[in-house]
Structure formats: structure tokens, C-alpha cells
Amino acid sequence: MSIALADEIRIDSESDIVVARKLVRDTATSLGFGLTDVTRIVTAASELTRNIYIYAGSGIMRCRPVASDARRGVELVFEDKGPGIADISKAMTPGYTTSRGMGMGLPGSKRLMDEMDLKSAVGQGTTVVVRKWLHK
Amino acid sequence: MTAENISVISLRNLLLVTVPPDPDDETISALQQKILESMARHDARGLVLDISTVQTLDSFFARTVMETVQMVALMGGRTVLAGMRADVAVTATQLGLSIGATQTALDVDRAFDLLQGEIQGGRTA
Amino acid sequence: MKTSQKPSNRSGQNAAPGNEAASAYNRSLIEASLDAMVTIGPDGRITDVNGATESVTGRSRTELIGTDFSGYFTEPAKAAAGYQRVFRDGQVRDYPLEIRHSDGHVTSVLYNASVYKDAEGKVIGVFAAARDITERKEAEALLAKASAYTRSLIEASIDPLVTIGPDGKVTDINAATEIATGYPRSELIGTDFAGYFTDPAKARAGYQQVFRDGQVRDYPLEMRHPSGKVTSVLFNASVYKDAEGKVIGVFAAARDITERKESEARIKQQANEILELSTPVMQVWKGVVVAPLIGSLDSSRTQQFMERLLSRIVETNSPVALVDIMGVPTIDTQTAQHLIEAISAVKLLGSQVVLTGVRPAIAQTLVHLGVNLSDISTRSSLAAGLQVAFTKLELEVVKKSQPGRAETKP
Fold first, then answer.
1. C344 contact partners, CB below 8 Å, separation of at least 6
2. What's the predicted TM-score (pTM) here?
3. Mean pLDDT, range C266-280, rounded to an integer
4. Shortest alpha-carbon distance between residue B30 and chain A (Å)
5. Three-class DSSP category at C126
6. CATH for A20
7. DSSP β-bridge partners for residue C216
8. Chain C touched by B51 (CB under 8 Å)
9. What subunits touch chain C, counting only 3 or more CB pairs under 8 A?
10. Nearest C-alpha of chain B: how many angstroms from A129?
11. Residue C300: domain span
């Protein structure tokens, strides 16, 4: 996978979610994603940055173009040092929520993207990596 | 963006509210507040929520909209969501969002037809 | 050099008195030599010659002795520099010169020469022996020509060719490699082979495999040009050996498959276009679109279908969409789920789907699978679905001959 400089955004407040959405929209559009895919990627970014804000209070989002074999795409990394997720499989169940959300954040984002890797340790934080490829 | 920038138009007994393209959470909450206040002030019977410029409908936004629809219903009004973009609808469905029994229309014009028909039909019935 | 027969003025002066018989024997050896031998005085004049020298110059002993040595060569200055060097350094080896025969033909020779001294150790002249190398030169020229021919074939190759040493460094390349990498020969040779690929680790693994297994076939790599252009290639490579059979490197030939890849991509795109054609979304009436689904529905096709259907509904501002599944041979839970998703998305837009063409077998399957379609209008035929659409749009179809009377049955 080629290395490209990632744009990084700190998520400290609700308004940072809008900033993150704008960055992801610009990056995905410039990479050549179609409108519906751009909307999917931006919506997933919105869900996952809001998770950081709601559950951890603060964290970062990184956004970068990626290439592997003949594929090109976008990768988003969401990192926080929050409470972590005790039961990942439960968190991936649609409708399950520990907050005021609709419980669609994680499973929904996974459906919107092509790949999702989730690492979490209770008390240490959570890292979610999602990718979407052009011309699947 | 603040609540002052949100456009709320009162037409006869209906409210037309245009949602901004990329609102932050604060604006979404302010929007709800302003809608409910306007419903009370104008004694409106229906609400047309024009979402034709909305680019991102995430679960938080959807939940606030659903809450607003329920609150408006409690105040005696019916809501129609008008003009959702095709890419937003595909994404919302894939994300797993549901708007329950909330009515939708292709555009504001059709939303007005729908609401007026129902309200008048309701009166004559 | 001692001469006893017809000594000339100079050689006669230099001749030391001695045993006549031994001297004659020595002289016979010199005369028998095939190499042209000559002695030169400090003034550069010839003091003695043997028979071979007479042959190679086409001049007799008497004509030669006493004349300037350098005068019998194509390059007199080089000849003079040669014997001067012998006087200075004591000797030279393999000094190349070309002797011109009186008839004009030229003989390439290599001179070995050394000074010779008198009894007191004083240098009195240069003894020089010339080896005719015309044949060797011809053989070399032939070899060079053959080698140049081989090289020209290598250079003419459209495929980038490269040789790699055991250390992974480029040892030789052809012109096509210069074009593919964008670097000149001088900058490529001696550098790391793996450095010219998008995936250096894979490139390294490739030539290591050749050293290990003796060869590889169709090893895919991507060459990177400084302009950023990437060329997809397949490598065929094998080891090459020296005369003793020891492996000295890898010879690798790359085949540019960019065009092949492009045509593959074109075929894929055409397949996509056919896919799109196979799921047309048509406007049949103002406010009504029809989407006939034909063939089996997989995940990616259903997704594409959903995006097209929704875009067309928005474009045509149609409150009703008829999705006809008459041409769908079988339906499973997954496909049914995709359809329900599409129908929900259409509802978000403010439009309504009427599912038509539900054949008995499909209806049975859906019920057995437990798929809940109770919220969705379904009809068995497209015509019945059109009637639903007209009703929703508050339209009625009227026969011209009987104005005012609606046709109740489609």
C-alpha cells in the first residue's frame, strides 16, 4: 500500500464533525468517487466522528488516499483514548446503543464502506479504520 | 450557522422550513426549537421540511428529524419530508435509517398538495 | 645482434669479434623467425633487419638499413615515440603499429622491444620484434561484429531487457529499459534493480527467486517512471553463467501489458454498460417510470439498479415507479432484502414502488422464505401495476368512442 500524507483533524467538539465531513467530501471527490459513493463515505465519517465525540469526548480522524495493486481508494482512521468497547460484536449489532443514538453508527458505516477494521481495549481507547475502493 | 439563518415561511396554515446543506449539531437542535415555536405562533396544521439541499443525513440528524415529526404531531400538525436527494436516500437506506410512517414527497410543490389535500379532506370528513 | 654476412657500414662497426660459428647459428635463428626483427640506433635509423622484415616491408635488407625506422609505418610519429620510449624505459610490450608494404598493403603488428648494450653496459640500440596480428585482428573484428549484431538485436527489442548481479544491482540494460524507466543507461547501471518498481519488495523477491530456482515466468511488476506513469509488466527471467558454468547474474525480459490491462478494463466497462442496459429505467407516462428486472440479481447489480432507479425518479419527478420482476428466474432472501431496501429508498424520495410481474413461483418462494412485503403494493402483471399508478395520479383511461366512461379493466 502506498504512503500518502494523511490529513488529520482533531475531534473536540460537535462543530469538528462538520469540518471532518468537509475534508472527507473534498478528498473523496478529488479521488474521482461518484456522488452516491461520496455521500456514503461522508456519512460514514459523520457517524464515526460522532462516536468519538459522544463516547470518548475527543480524538482524531485521519483521511488519506490509498493504493493497493490496481486499486485506488480512500482510507479513514478514527482514533480515541476513550473508554473502549467491551463487546465489539454487540457494538456491531444494528440497533444496539449505549447512548442516545440510533445504534446505526458502527454496523451502518461498515455497510457504507468496503472494509472496516475495529480495534478496542477497555480503558485504553478505540481505533476504527475504514476504506472504500474506486470501481469495485 | 445560527437559528437566525434558518428560513421558516408560513403559508396559510402550513409551515415551509428549508434545512441548510451541511448543518452542525447545534444548528439541527436550533432548527427543531424554531420549528416548534413557529408551529405554536402560527397555529400551523402542517409542516413541509425541505431537505433538497441536505448532503449528509446521518443517524443523529435522522433521529432529530424523527423527534421533530413526533413533536409536531403532538402539536396537531402533519409533517412531509420533501426533496430528499437520490444519493442521500440510497445512503440512508444502506446505513439502516428508518423514518417510520413519516410522509415524503418528491418536491415542495407535491408536499403542499399532499398536506392541503389531507387537511381539507380531514375537515370535510 | 651480430651480423657476419655482408655487414653494412654501421652493423659492421657494432659487430663484436667472436666465434664465427656461434654467430652464424644465432643469425640463422633470427633469419628463421617469422616475426619481423629489426635493430635501431639511437638516431632512429635501422641498423639491421631479418628476412621477415624484408617480406613485411617489401624492401631488401640493403634498402632498409641506414634509413629511418619510422618511415615504414602508417603512423611515423607513433613509431618514433615507440622506440624513443624503449630508449627511455628499457623496453615496451605489445606496442601496436601498422607496417606499410611497398605495394601499399598494411600489416598490423605488436612490437616487443628492448635496448641492447655493449660490453661496458652502454645502450647502443633497440632490438625490436614485431608479431603479425592481422589474423588475430580479423578474428577480433569478426567477434566484435557478431557481438555488435547480438547487441543490436538486444537494443532493437521492444521489451525492456536487464541483467542483474547477485547483489541486486543492474549490470546492463537495453534502450527499451531506458524508455520504460525514464533514466539513461549511465544512471541505471550499478543501481538497485528493485528501486524502479512500485513494489520494491516484490521486485526483490522476484530476482531472488530466479537466483534460487533458475528462472521465473510471467512475474507481474509495475515499473515506475519519474513522470509518475506506471507501466504494468510481466517478467520472464533466467540466470546466465560464465564459461565455467558459474551463475553470474539474472537476465530479465519485461513485457509491457499496459495495453492488455487496458483492454481488460474496457471489457469490464462494457460488461458494466451491458449491465446498465439490462436494467433500463423508462418513463412511460408523466410521473410514472418502469424498471423491468431481467436475469438474476446479485448484490452489486441490485445496488447499481437502486442508484439508477432513484436518480431517474428524481430526474423525471415521478411519484410512481413500477419495478417488474417477471424476468427474474429465482429470488432468494438476499435478493428480496435488496429489493426491500430499494423500495424503502424510493419511499424516502417521496415516490412509491409498485412491484409487478410477481409470478406464482416467486410468490410461493417469498412466502416460504418469510419475506414480508405487506407494506408494498404488488401486482401480478405490469398492466395491473400501471392501473395502480394511474389511480394514484388520479388519472383515468378513457375510450375515445365512449367519452366520459372509464375503462375499468386494464
1. B93, B98
2. 0.59
3. 70
4. 14
5. strand
6. 3.30.565.10
7. C237
8. no
9. A, B
10. 17
11. 279-392
